[in-house]
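Re: iron/sulfur cluster structure - here you go.
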Amino acid sequence: MADYEVPKLNGDGYVEIPGVVRDTMKGSGPFIAKPEFQEALGFPADFGKDENDNWELVPDWKNRALEKLDDLRGRYRSLQVYLDICVKCGACTDKCHYFIGTQDPKNMPVARQDLLRKVYRRYFTFAGKYFPRLVGAVDLTEEVVDDWYNYYHQCSQCRRCSVFCPYGIDTAEISMAAREILDHIGRGSKYNNEIIGKVFKIGNNLGLPGLALKDTLEGLEEDVEDETGFKVRFPLDEVGADVLLITPSADFFAEPHVDGLIGYAKVFHEAGISWTLSSHASEGANFGMFVGSYENMHSISLRIREAAEQLKVKRIVFGECGHAWRVGYSFLNTLAGPFDFLDQNYPVPQHMLDVTWGLIQDGKLELNPAENDDMVLTFHDSCNVARGSRIGDYPGSQFDIPRNVIKAVCNHFYDMPQDTIHDATYCCGGGGGLLTDDLMELRVKGAQPRMEALKYVTGQEGVTHMATICAICKSQFTKVIPYYGFSMDQIVSVHQLVGNALVMKREVSVQARPDEPEGRE
Ligand code: SF4
Ligand code: SF4
């Protein structure tokens, strides 16, 4: 199946820390973005290919890289601090799924950080300028740039290592800074930068135009009516709806994502909430975060604000997704706020799971968990939710609420081992802008710790399915899980489970009321 060795699972619930094998993943970076994709994102595009058909760096790349590093450490105090304070205690070394899966020591978080830190020391510290060998400072060379490109694209920015670092050093932030520098010297990742370009041009990562989206949603309405007999609506661009739903575009057609979208629609229908999607902001995932670009993250976020204003909604709700929610929860208000024109009785924005859990607690949804009795569930906490945000209004709500909802709609649920869930959760192996086929080996190997934990509960508790909320986790797992002897359909969306269990009673969906939007002038 693969032309590399897929890690073996032992099934005993322990993630074995492997020995070190140097350079196993050297030169395994993703495809490089062409100048036209760089230009669309505001990055320099004055570079081409050499006589061997390899992409060159931009002219004067060294100065430009150092200027960018200087700019970023000035802009982000945290980056400067992280570059200065590592004491090389080693607590993070065995915490990264990519190190565990690949054995490459440069995938140890501290070694990954050091790729940038050594250059920072050489050019921006007294000791590094005058006694470089004493402090491990190195010159910025093309070889260093190659290592940056390869190994900063072997970090899914999951932040697991930061949980175990006594100083809280966030490797994800260093990795974002490195990618931003790389983008400024002609080393952008094709996958990420093409996707961001599509959002600017069309509105979503997939490049799905408004008409195609409308057709897709109409098809879903027909499917749900055939299945349930109820006319559940999937509205698009409806002015005056109460809720604007921002969801990753994978929800429109990928499996099992679309089953989650069907679940949201059923919840809104039964709860009598009018809602709409937007063709202008038809993407929840903000890849500007992955490439570390404040400017791109800002532009993508503004589309959500524009859609909310145009559609005169009262609330913004994010669908199931991890990376979308990280930007939504942590940054949306700063990037595109204030959202004082929305109903302040609701969180801005609010996660769909928070909406559903609130409705369940208020007795607004009738549920029959027996509808999911053909499954024994476990839950994968997505990194960006687990370590970057909450879902409700108290610490740990991001762990409780998904489990509360699953337990309300399923009779059989078991957690994976404690050191692999909640804030110690392992990344799916495809996060942080690495969900591309050119990184398949990394993705398969990086999934190993999660697969190990899944295998354990499969053996111990008879778990048959793993629910998750992040669009990237869903896509990554369905792709890599067969390498470990599981099948794609063992991955499910949480709202897929909700949709299965929901007892449908309401004959007609509540419609948007464009002429009399409540609560506004
Ligand atoms: S942020 Fe995640 S992927 Fe990156 S080094 Fe830390 S543990 Fe590894
Ligand atoms: S745990 Fe923190 S301080 Fe220790 S080596 Fe890793 S990054 Fe440095």
